[in-house]
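Appendix B, record 7
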Amino acid sequence: MHESSSPSACRRKKQWAVAAILFFTACSAALFWFVGKPMLATLAQPEQFRIWVDTHGVLGRLAMVCMMAFQIIIAIVPGEPLEIGAGYAFGVWEGTLLCLAGSVLGSLLVFCFVRKYGVKVVELFFSREKIRSIGFLQNTRRLHLLVAVLFLIPGTPKDLIGYCAGLTAMKYSAWLLITTPARIPSILTSTLGGDALGMQRYTAALIVLGVTLTLSAAGLLVYRALCRKETAACPAAPGPKHKEAA
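Structure tokens (predicted):
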């Protein structure tokens, strides 16, 4: 019998998988406690955040990219305050590019880790009920189209979709090519609002943020309707394939 299929080899693989998931969990918890909470507190005082960015130059921009990547990985951290803070500190275009770069980095790390270790990683942040709610992503004929639409619509749970995408048959390259441009509208509306705040154009900021909230609420309704429609069309797919680490 080939060594890789022996009981001892399978047991070692499972032990490594469990260790990796525990390590990921511990790192996620530590990052949230020591980085995430202070980061959100800083963003609550945007003027201080801008001063910090101005005094750190390239390092400040690198920190912004890392913070966005962190937000994607630790799905419980909201992304909108970061994007608004980026618009406030860097302006619309630079803030959008930095947020997009961080999103790409975080998405790739999540996708790779889920692809390697399976559904147990997703369940660190989402319940099985939520995972099953987008089981229609197993419809491989329309997978790319569905992901593109869901990422373009504001208000959809992109973190959930990002984690569950690693459980599908989608390739890394396709994932990045589809989701990177599809993230731009959502990021852009937030950085526009942040930039308006930074320029003290408070009326414009309120209009942008109000429109963003309205679109997000409408997008959430569209997302729920799409979920019901796709789930009804694919009753045999109750949830993403729960790839277990082997």
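Remarks on this record: The mean pLDDT is 76. The radius of gyration is 20 Å.
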